[in-house]
Amino acid sequence: MAMLMPLTAHEAYRRYRQERPAIEKAAELTAAYLRRRAARRHLSCQVSARAKEVSSFIKKAYRKRDYTDPWNEITDKAGIRIVVPYSSLLDEALDLIDSSCTVIRVEDDREKPGFEERLQYPRLHVQIQAHGEGMDPDGVPYECEVQIRTEAADVWARMSHSLMYKPGSTTDIPSDVRRSLYRLIALVELYDSEVERGVKALAEHPDFSRNNRLLAEAERIYQTFSSHPYDRQLSEDVVDVLVDAVGDNPSYADQLVEFAEEHRSRIERAYEQYGPSSEQFLEHGRYLLVSQPESLIIFERLANARYDLQAIWEGNLEDRLLTDMARIWQVRW
Question: Of the candidates 178, 198, 218, which is a domain's last residue?
Answer without folding.
Answer: 198
